[in-house]
Amino acid sequence: MYIIFVEGVRKASIKNPYSLLGSGSKPKAISSLAKRPSEVTRQGTQKLKFVPTLPARRSKDAVKIEPVPDTIPASSNDRGRGRGRGRGEGSGRGRGGPRPPAEMVASGPFALGPAMAGTSSSRRFAQAATPIPAPSNTKASPLGAGLSQTAAPKIKREEQKLEKDEDEEIYSDADEGVEIIDMENVGQMDWMAPDSIIKEKTKRPKKEDPDATVQEVNIANALDGDEDEADEKDLETMFDDLNKMNYDTDNDSQYLCLFQFPSPFPTFSAQPSDTMQTDAPVTPGSKKVTFAPDVKLETEGLSSTAEVQELDGLIGHLEVYRSGARKIRLANGIVLDVSPASQPSFLEHAVHLDMKENKLTILGELFKHYLVAPDIDALLNAMDALDSGSQTVLAGEENLIRMDIT
Amino acid sequence: MNEQDEIINRIPIRLSNRLSLQIHQFPLLSRPLQAPPSAEASGKRITARIKSQSRVLEIHVPADTRTEVYNSERGHEFGKGQLDDDREKNQERKGGKGREGEEPRLAEIRLRSEEIPHRGTQMLGIVHENELHLHPINATHQFRPTLTYLDILSRKSRRRAGDDSDSDSDDGPPPDPDEPVPVTAAKKKEKKATAGDAKEVQVSARRTDDKGGNLSQLSNARKEMLAIIRAEQDESWQDLQFCGMTTEEAGHSLDQFFSYKSEELHCSTDVTTFLTAAQKA
């Protein structure tokens, strides 16, 4: 690529010096094009000089001419950037500038493969309202000033990921008004600053967790197969996130989880003896329709048949097994398996919409998604029982062969 | 299943359905839904409104209007476009401040919702005091920013740009593919021909089965879609009070979420209904 470019320069020569620039960039300083003896190759063309560019962060009012001119990036720099982008920087938020040396992990909901989506997207919670900084004055200001120097509130990630990198990058001293900005800290410069791409920590402390050594197939871990570090971490979180929720009684109410049950959800009613139930077909997600003349209702008046009975009470138990499996056991022999569903990487709010008072109240942000499915053994046994129970017993049946007509 | 699997923890599950719960999804990766501090300092808050029949919500998040990060000229341009767009759709904010009446600015991001159908029964679960509380979720809404002010502005610029503007219109349903090919395509072909070749090739496209723009010939599906769109545009917005997570109302709603009675509820179905209901459906 480099060689091809040199040929291009030869052809373009000096007819139009601006042809070297990428489209749309205003020439700020032409110093790089002036031919100095050290910069000209033996064939008379210009040697390419790599000059790092600084992020152009200028306020609209003041465009001060810096003592060190903002040199136009040589086109090879542009190509380099293009190549880098092509290599998959994910959301492509990196700009020209001191390139981070270590490998970078692309962020964004689609940059990761489907298997990884479960691990890295653990949702987190907004910190307590950050102190609101006083808005800065809008004076003409040099580059970089006028920003509030506070980050936007980041939603806290899980504890493991909060490890701060101990060794900060040390750059050479800033000279003459050029501010050195570490690309990783760009996000902390201002509320509106873009998020930096997260660097993957190369050394992760290996955790000694007895539960995590259980590598056998268990339904609690939907991401089976890989022996990755990320998966081990996932195993840990899936083992004890529910336990953690139990023991952490101080702020346990912040763990909002979405459970996706199979439909129709079992019908529950308040009083066991006096309820009558209609045979209306229950469509997925709809409310349970029950006639309950004797049940004391709380608020809504029971006028039409479509009114939903208000429920409040105990329905079953969630059992956590040593192997990490979790089951929900409800009445009537209903056993359901709980497994983690694919976690969304975006923000989700649980919201209470009160149309009577015209209020929209945010209850919180969702933490994890779980998928609930009937336990197959229990389901098949129950189906067998149902089938055998419904068939009429004929005299001398044991001599007959049963034909399956289902 | 390993038979020696022992239970190490057992949490009771409770059910309640007092509230009308929804899930709102936002295109935000690592930030919460918050107004920027500069906007909060000047008193702007997140607001919301709803069209209950059409099941559409809108959440307006104030934008950061500091000069370092906000382009005022564009802001005014877009603000005017938004005002025009609002007037067209009859959703103009009544009782706006005097200053805003003179020079409207685009000072908020509008997120519009789309309802997502549920698969299965969704329940919100919170572990509280060593008990799992479940609550059914009524609807799930996905929010995206709406940039309808751009439509109006592009329409104006398109009218200004050329007299031979194409025949498909911006408002209403997406461009009808049955409409005749716009005139501008023919012009481009002429220019191409005169560049080097001596020959001029005239190309014209004609539809054999012309469904036409005649309203009576539209298919039923299209009529339904148009009816839905029209009904939604006709319905007026209902303002909602937006209460964030840290407000008192949120605490109050959260209290209502939990189930308090410790009686056992009676279940009238069993596991087999999962299969039999699916068979019926």
From TrEMBL, chain A:
Keywords: DNA-directed RNA polymerase, Nucleus, Transcription. InterPro entries: RPC4. Residues 78-92, 155-164 have a biased composition (Basic and acidic residues). Residues 53-170, 200-232 are annotated as: Disordered. Pfam families: RNA_pol_Rpc4. It is found in: Nucleus. This is RNA polymerase III RPC4-domain-containing protein. It comes from Lentinula lateritia.
Automatic annotation (TrEMBL), chain B:
Keywords: DNA-directed RNA polymerase, Transcription. Residues 67-110, 157-216 are annotated as: Disordered. This is DNA-directed RNA polymerase III subunit Rpc5. Residues 164-179 have a biased composition (Acidic residues). Residues 192-212 have a biased composition (Basic and acidic residues). The lineage of its organism: Eukaryota, Fungi, Dikarya, Basidiomycota, Agaricomycotina. Transmembrane segments: none annotated. The keyword Iron-sulfur does not apply. The keyword Transcription applies.
